[in-house]
Automatic annotation (TrEMBL):
Protein name: Tetratricopeptide repeat protein
Upper taxonomic lineage: Eukaryota, Metazoa, Spiralia, Gnathifera, Rotifera
Organism encoding this protein: Rotaria socialis
InterPro entries in alphabetical order: TPR-like_helical_dom_sf
């Protein structure tokens, strides 16, 4: 259901569902269990999507905050030796630098 909500741009509702799922998984599994890791990645994905929506509305600071939340999650859950981690973190940090420039130029 949460995946459908993401596709329908209902990120706040999807985020709530992913967070609830994470709570349930944490009651039964360790932090490195695949279900916990996947839930965390889904939450980070929602934060990135919410940041994109903020950019479309020129809400640079809000977008930056969502990116920061996503970055923290990705840093915590993606395997340190994966190329996926390197790619995602590089892309996200680039986005954050661009947002910082936009914030500076609009203040």
């Amino acid at each position: 259901i949460a995946n459908i909500l993401v596709e329908a741009d209902q990120f706040d509702v999807a985020l709530g569902l992913y967070m609830r799922a994470l709570e349930i998984y944490r009651e039964h599994f360790t932090e490195r269990h695949p279900e916990v890791l996947t839930s965390n990645q889904n939450i980070a994905h929602c934060f990135r999507a919410m940041a994109t929506k903020c950019v479309e509305k020129q809400l640079w600071q809000d977008a930056l905050e969502f990116c920061q939340q996503a970055l923290k999650i990705y840093e915590d859950v993606l395997p340190s030796d994966s190329t996926e981690r390197e790619s995602i973190l590089k892309s996200l940090k680039n986005d954050m630098n661009q947002l910082l420039e936009l914030i500076k130029s609009n203040t």
